[in-house]
Amino acid sequence: GGFVTAATDMxxxxxxxxxxxxxxxxxxxxxxxxxITTLAAKKLIKSYYGQAQKYSYFVGCSDGGREALMAAxxxxxxxxxxxxxxxxAHFQTQNSLYHGWSVxxxxxxxxxxxxxxxxxxxxxxxxxxxVAACGGTxxxxxxxxxxxxxxxxxxxxxxxxxxxxxxxxCLTAAEVTTAxxxxxxxxxxxxxxxxxxxxxxxxxxxxxxxxxxPNSNSTDAPAPVTxxxxxxIVTGAYNLIFTGSPTMPNINTFxxxxxxxxxxYLAANHPLNDATNPDLSAFQKxxxxxx
Length: 291
Prior knowledge:
291 residues, 38% helix
């Protein structure tokens, strides 16, 4: 037997966000694009091969994982099996508070006008220290912590001594502050509660490279925080998330410490963009399988 694959541009071309003020294109990106692509693909298969496909599968990761969950939640008859890898189910929170915090935390000015503080080489120094401190008797030879929740590492423990001339294997005071902020994530100053379901965990530092920190090193030319992948993500998702909000915040004025940020800014488009409906009974009834 053979197989046929299909892919979609989710209703727009290019990497800019000029399309995101169009309500139809918003729906195409949020959930409709993969559905109508699937319908078209099935018709083409039947027309070309003279018979319908036996099974249909969807595989996606990150936003593709969100699309996978959208398919299971909204169109339970589209696929026999769905693989949702690392799904960005809480699309709006992730692409506002999470990535926005990554930018303003790793900035010399505390906003998106400054240069990067923590770079790839120091993220590696930090990761090595975390694994050494929390890897147990085995030392976590694979570089992975069995349970990051049991790690009580403090970046201050590897802060460079005052007046140190060689800072290649330690963190400056500014780098310590930045690392601590990345770990903590946005916090509601009224209740003291974290505002994200998950922030970067101890042991994840090497994975910050390319997202929270640039690929370049601290010995290279200064990099503006606008070059961070996290900044690109926030900028791209801006209109998609906040269209319909009472006011349009920007990356520097997100309510990183405001417990009302969800209801004030994210509630309006939550049903459109977030794949968080736990009711998969229709997909189960259709015989679908989800990983």
